[in-house]
Amino acid sequence: MLVSIALPVYNAQEFLDECFESILKQNRSTDDQGQASKINDTEEKTETVFSVEVSVYDDGSTDSSPSLIDKWAKTFGSTQGFSFRLSKNDTGSPKGVGFARNETIRQSTGDYICFCDADDIMDPNRISAQLKLNMLHPEAIIGSKFRRLPADSTRSFTCWANSLTERQLQTQIYMTFGPTIVMPTWFCHRRVYDRVEGGFNESGKGTPEDLIFFYKHLDQNGKVARVDQELVIYRYHSSATTFSVTDEIIRNIRLERMESKVLNSWNKFSIWNAGKLGRRFYRSLSPQTRQKVTCLCDVDKKKITQKWYHPHPIKEKVSIVHVKDASPPFVICVKTEITWDPTGDFRMLLDSLNLEEGVDYYYFN
Q1: Is position 288 within any domain?
Q2: For residue 211, what are the CA distances in angstroms to 44, 218, 243, 251, 332?
């Protein structure tokens, strides 16, 4: 069995040695995991030995990345159980992350694809743990928990992503942070990638290609699952491609899909939050969907005493009521930080209503 590591590179000289070294240290047997032999409470005794193919696409690096890649190509080429594939963009202009990811996969030959960014570090058991779970869930994109470097950077994002339950991996797909399976941790069978026509969006800089692919995967009835171990060190730095994508672009994609897949099937619904986030959500809806909004609801007395929200130039006005006077289903527009603390006021109120996430409510923020 062959696992291909899809590794796009662009000006990553600071990080490549650590990244490649972590790949070279991968355990190549699903029985090498020791305590990880039991994944997500699923026992699996069968051992699988696999080889690793490192598939690199250099998207026109202008630093010392090319020489580092050549050095590591020789190392992998002379190491048993590893092979190396390389292609380069010689046009003088980077083609973007989506194109680069697609190229790493097009030139690869593995049965399974392990996604890796050049600035990240893989735990030695990453491939073996994810492969093991993927063999149990062949139609899924498999993720894992991760650690941030530096520690405590993007704390809210990390806490949210690592604390998601199996159910929430399916339901919290409209949150501000993007896919519930975080891209640097993706692992899947090749046919899962092949089912998404065109692979990753190749529009270039400023495109959330991972979110677009993720939604297309779900639209193909694709599944998601996660190994509940920290298998990737996910580096945070100002030159990361994440910073080239604006929040507004991501928000519009999330909103469009939520209207299509959720709100269109509801006859009516309430917006939980009569403040800034809820009002913005209401204004952003299409006119047809706005007609379904019965109220904005809140617990803040000052907001409730306003009684109505009537934003110009929208013709309709919508009532503002207490949460307990509103009826599900809800779109809950609150800050992510308050959603995961079961002892906080918000969660205690939400839990007291005995609602089912993904049926009676979805989050959008």
Answers
A1: yes
A2: 31, 11, 14, 11, 21
